[in-house]
Design brief:
Keywords: Metal-binding, Zinc, Zinc-finger. By secondary structure, this protein is of the alpha+beta class. It is about 30% helix and about 15% strand. Strand 12 (about 230-235) and strand 13 (about 240-250) form a beta hairpin.
């Protein structure tokens, strides 16, 4: 075996990586790359459409190379160079590529039989991020290419994702693209050779046709009449690799003009491009990705093709829909093995089909039971993937009125069974023994009311006031009375609530009948048996559903891992936000307290005991008990923050006002809420499994084979 390495001085040294095995015949066809040989990776998804050229630093220079590259120093092999063709100074969108391979643009064919020395061993891998180092040859363009891939997207922090250069790259049209291939070039598989040809067809804006394709060979020709462009590849022995054995160039036909829909821009080709983008930015929509592909390559992608390609790309990244249900047991063990307090519960029907799956992340459970006010908001959202289903969500609220996701569940349908399963899991797996009281805010659905009464009997259930108001307007067609409904629901005293309700009766008697038919204890704060703690709606969960919206169409394991990734990022961001904030109250409630302090100056205070005071102004009088943290206006006890009357009593005694605020509004508690984050998860290949695991089948209620909705 000849194993050589060429240095810059042309000396020979043993090369442990790039080796070419020589057989007794010495012919080129008998030479095959040995495992561990260097292969140059061509990066094709750059936004400026850089044309990538390959050459190996570990192969022997051929006689043909020496004859065609007389100016190159002896001993140098063909290298990888990158021609930067996105020169912003060029005014024309259609320009020719620089001839990055030194020598002539000879259009004659080069066959294997012409060479007795081994040619470059390389591979085309459109999904790789590595590149060989730039050449030191002074005769080649100085293209210092970084091994780190540059994203085509800008960070999603305000403004557009793309720059003008990303959205308006030049479109190549020159026949110098023929130099992308050369005789002797090796591809790891036939599929990678086909993908390389697809790229060249789209980039050169020419239709190519398959002239021959079988297990042993592949031949493509130009589809234009009279053009002699042709390329042929043959299988190397028993290996899956293909070597180019014939290459006729250049094209003699003219490229396509304007936007076009080439056959080579197939669903698989578009899916490969979308997959690379989704790896970097998984939250991109189909419309955003397709727009970028159309702009970069100057092609037209139909809506149906883009949908099929997106489904294929996501399946490639997140697994098959059927197989994902079978991975649930391994995912369940992977979650619990991390030791961070994450809990799960998987339910399978008697026939082996999936029924329900519940999961809650340990750091969020701990934060809810220790740091957050005792309020849980429950909501649901429909899954948009291949199988129908519903995602149930339970969230808490931090000291800045920000959402804290606590628990999730995938159920077949949003009915009594689904909500009962979720409520039971929350009671048994999430709520700690210190949670002696709990307020739950939900929709007005009957299935939710029944489930909470059955499995969370000690919780105080309240309807979302915003949803109640919307239903009132929808049923009674009285938008002018909408504000009165809100005032009734947020009034702290029953006297104030009844006052606004009487005004509602005078405005529309029938509308008031509809509102009074709903149990007041479920929507009116003054009649509510628990405490809302300044929370009246479930709109915070709407913002979180928008955050996880791009994972709702994934297979179930991809969905679950997607929520984990979103929650981990969310926790980390909040952790960084609060790291350098001084102690005191959170910003939201510090501003509220400051406003109340200014208003309290107009009140008079009379002390009756060490903790009891009478606060009055004109004909209004309020009783404040600082030890019990109550006020006759009921705002203090229902919010946990001192009302204006309590603040007047506190300031009159010269007490520290922060000592009379609930602890969950403090910066210290807010910092503790996000003190822990989630650990990383292994690939599904490494998930623990057991031999006695029974298979889990997809639910029968979902329609298989049809993507119900794709986010665009």
């Amino acid at each position: 075996m000849d194993t050589l390495k060429r240095t810059s001085a042309g000396s020979k040294e043993p090369c442990p990586r790039g080796t070419v095995e020589r057989t007794s015949t010495g012919s080129q066809d008998s030479r095959v790359p040995v495992q561990g040989s260097c292969s140059a990776h061509v990066v094709r998804d750059q936004p400026n459409l850089n044309l990538l050229k390959t050459r190996s630093s570990t192969t022997v220079q051929t006689r043909a190379m020496r004859s065609r590259q007389e100016q190159a120093p002896s001993g140098l092999a063909r290298e990888t160079v990158v021609a930067d063709v996105a020169d912003s100074s060029r005014s024309s969108p259609h320009h020719s590529f620089d001839n990055v391979i030194d020598g002539s643009s000879d259009s004659s064919s080069l066959d294997d039989e012409q060479h007795n020395e081994p040619l470059l061993t390389s591979s085309w891998d459109g999904g790789q991020d590595e590149m060989e180092s730039p050449t030191d040859n002074p005769t080649r363009p100085n293209t210092q290419a970084s091994g780190r891939r540059r994203s085509i997207f800008k960070p999603a922090v305000g403004g557009s994702r793309f720059t003008s250069a990303d959205l308006n790259p030049p479109i190549p049209t020159s026949s110098t693209l023929d130099n992308e291939f050369f005789v002797g070039q090796i591809f790891e598989t036939k599929q990678k050779l086909k993908f390389a040809l697809h790229d060249i067809a789209v980039l050169s804006r020419r239709e190519l046709r398959v002239n021959k394709s079988d297990h042993q060979s592949l031949e493509w020709r130009c589809g234009a009449k009279g053009c002699g462009w042709c390329i042929r590849g043959n299988k190397i022995g028993e290996l899956p690799s293909f070597r180019i054995t014939r290459y006729l160039k250049p094209h003699t036909c003219k490229p396509q003009e304007g936007q076009w829909d080439p056959k080579q821009a197939s669903v698989d080709w578009i899916a490969a491009k979308e997959k690379e983008m989704l790896k970097i930015h998984p939250d991109l929509s189909t419309k955003e990705i397709v727009t970028n592909i159309e702009t970069r390559f100057g092609i037209k992608v139909s809506r149906s093709k883009s949908k099929r390609a997106m489904a294929s790309a996501k399946e490639s990244l997140h697994g098959n829909y059927k197989d994902s249900f079978g991975n649930l047991r391994g995912l369940e063990r992977e979650f619990t093995s991390k030791g961070d307090g994450t809990v799960t519960n998987l339910i399978v029907n008697d026939d082996g089909t999936f029924r329900n799956f519940f999961w809650a992340f340990g750091p969020c459970i701990e934060a809810f039971n220790i740091c957050l006010r005792p309020v849980m908001i429950m909501d649901s959202t429909i899954l948009t993937g291949r199988y129908s289903g519903v995602l149930l969500i339970a969230c808490g609220v931090d000291g800045e009125n920000g959402i804290v996701p606590i628990a999730f569940s995938v159920v077949e349908e949003e009915n009594d069974d689904g909500w009962s399963f979720f409520a039971e899991c929350v009671q048994n797996l999430v709520l700690g023994p210190s949670r002696k009281e709990l307020t739950i805010i939900t929709d007005m659905k009957e299935s939710i009311v029944t489930s909470i009464k059955q499995f969370l009997p000690l919780a105080h259930h309240s309807f979302c006031l915003q949803r109640l108001t919307e239903n009132f307007v929808s049923k009674c067609h009285e938008r002018i009375l909408e504000a009165l409904v809100w005032r009734c629901g947020t009034a702290f005293t029953r006297k104030e609530c009844d006052y606004f309700l009487e005004h509602l009766r005078r405005g529309n008697t029938q509308a008031s009948y509809w509102l009074e038919a709903v149990d007041k204890s479920l929507w009116a704060t003054s009649y509510f048996s628990g405490c809302r703690y300044d929370l009246y709606t479930k709109k915070l969960t709407e913002s979180f559903k928008a955050i996880i919206g791009d994972v709702l169409d994934l297979p179930i394991t991809g969905l679950i891992l997607g929520t984990r990734t979103k929650v981990a990022d969310y926790l980390y961001e909040r952790q960084q936000d609060v790291s350098d904030i001084a102690n005191g109250l959170t910003k939201h409630y510090a501003r509220l307290l400051e406003t109340s302090q200014l208003e309290s100056n107009i009140y008079n205070v009379t002390h009756f005991s060490l903790h009891e005071s009478r606060v009055y102004i004109q004909d209004q009088e309020f009783s404040v008990n600082l030890n019990g943290r109550t006020c006759s206006c009921r705002q203090y006890q229902l919010m946990g923050m001192p009302c204006v009357h309590a603040i007047a009593a506190i300031q009159a005694r010269h007490y520290n006002i922060y000592d009379y605020c609930a602890y969950w509004y403090t910066i210290e508690t807010y910092r503790q809420t996000y003190s822990k984050t989630l650990s990383t998860i292994q690939s599904c290949i490494d998930w623990p499994c057991e031999s006695n695991d029974s298979p889990i089948l997809p639910p029968t209620c979902g329609a298989e084979g049809v993507v119900q909705s794709v986010r665009a």
